[in-house]
Every structure is written in structure tokens, then in C-alpha cells.
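[worker-b] picked up task from shared queue
[worker-b] task type: protein-ligand structure
[worker-b] ligand name resolved to adenosine-5'-triphosphate; SMILES cross-checked against name lookup, match
[worker-b] sequence length check passed
[worker-b] input payload:
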Amino acid sequence: MQATAPTAPVNLRDVVLDFRDLTKIYPTPTGDYVVLENLQLQIKKEEFVSIIGHSGCGKTTLLTMIAGLNAISRGEILLNEFPITGPGPDRGVIFQSPSLFPWMTAFDNVMLGVEQVFPHGTRKQREDIVKYYLDKVGLGQSMYRRANQLSQGMQQRVGIARAFALKPKILLLDEPFGMLDSLTRAELQDVLLEVWDKEKITAIQITHDVDEAIFLADRVIMMTSGPRAQIGDILEIGFQRPRMRKEILNHPDYYGYREHLIGFLEH
Ligand SMILES: Nc1ncnc2c1ncn2[C@@H]1O[C@H](COP(=O)(O)OP(=O)(O)OP(=O)(O)O)[C@@H](O)[C@H]1O
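[worker-b] inference finished, payload out:
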């Protein structure tokens, strides 16, 4: 299928990430594997974007290139007009598993990153940042418990607190709730949206869950299946913010959005 990217023109002043002819090729023993080819996309400041697509189409590849952790083969990604060439504190990542130091408290796990990003503040200022975000994700009473004494959902709350506490310009989320049961998943979607609504940083999230994409995103980017994956379609989600789960589920547009996404994935 030849991909098109039917999207409304974006005002260039609002663009924070600009993907220009982005191509990724992995060398393999049987020859080059072209995962993404000539991908074009613009993401706006303060936008929440979800990316969905079949397994193996290149979503994580795309996210790790934005993070600067995976080399770009051809084309470029401009971040505020400058090409991405490596990782930096302007981009924060939340992975499926938050990789905490198990013997350290939730507080110390977040503090570790905050000390690196804000070395010039006072100890008190750094402590206030850590406490503020742990409180926001609902860990006000548990911040001095060791990470290995926390449930998976609580550990991911620490991951969310840590990512926001480092004050990135762009938040990259690689299936952050993929390992959680559906109840915890819904809880953490609410937590994420609550913190994000206050901070309004640009967020790009990979998910396999169409309901999650609709609940969280301003736009859902649908990727075609690889090899040579591109943007197949883009769906604008018009729900007002802040979003309440119950209102969204009862909204007359909800099932139209859902059918659009499922229709694309089943195509
Ligand atoms: N380092 C690598 N070397 C060679 N091929 C790779 C490498 N990393 C990923 N690939 C291949 O590139 C393709 C895209 O992988 P990627 O992990 O980006 O897909 P994805 O859409 O995130 O998949 P999933 O939804 O299953 O997580 C896959 O076919 C994968 O096997």
C-alpha cells in the first residue's frame, strides 16, 4: 500500500519535531533491512501524539531515534530546528519497565536523576521537586519505600514522576503501561494525563491499545506495516481537555474514532 499522510497543515512556528525523509536501515546478515523509509511528520509544541501500528513496523525504532539512542540512516529529525544527533536532557523516556534501582527508595530513585539535571539548585529545591512529582503520581505516602517493595504499577508511577521531574521538553513513552493489568493501566493513564495537563510538554507515546490512544492523544499516528513503513493515516481526536474517562466513553464521537483506528489496523 502506498502511504499518504493526510494531515492538516501545521503552522511552522508551532512545530517542535520535524521529521524529514526519515529513513532507518538495519544491516542484517542477509542484507539491509529498510524499516522506515522517507517518513514525513511534524509534531507540534504541547501536543500529545500516540503512535499505533502492527508489531515490528518500526515504532520503537522511531522513538529511539527521537531519543537520540539509535542512529538515523538517512534524512533527519529536527528538534526546535536543530538536527538530533544524540541523547539529551531535553528528551525524557518512559519505558515499559521503569528500570529503578531496587534497593533504593522511590524518593532516591527520582532524586538520582534530579541531581544530574539540576546540579546547581539547593538540596531543598531538589527535594521539593522530587516530593512534588511523587505526590502528583499518588506516592506521597510511599516515597520512602524501597523500589523492590512497590507493586509494578507503583514502580511505573515512580517512572512517570522521574520523567516529569527532569523537566524534559519532549516526553517519549514506549508502551509505558503494556505490562500492567487493565485496572492499573486505566489508573496510570489518569495519572499521566493529570500530570501532563499541568505541564503540557510534547508527548509521543507508542501503544497497541486503541482506547488508550483515543483517551490520551490529540492525534493518533497510524504506521503502515514494514518493511519501508511510513505514516499511513492520522486521526485528530477532538475531545476537550482535561478529559474525564466517563465523558470520553459516552461521547458520540468515541466509537467513530475507534472504528477508524481498528479499520486501519485490520486493513
Ligand atoms: N538492531 C536491529 N537490527 C536489525 N533489525 C532490527 C533491530 N532492531 C529492530 N529490528 C527490526 O526492525 C523492525 C522494527 O522493529 P521495532 O522494534 O522498531 O518495531 P515495533 O513496531 O516497535 O515492534 P513492537 O510493536 O513489536 O514493539 C523489526 O522487524 C525488528 O526485527
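[worker-b] attaching auto-annotations
[worker-b] Residues 1-6 have pLDDT under 50 and may be disordered.
[worker-b] releasing lock
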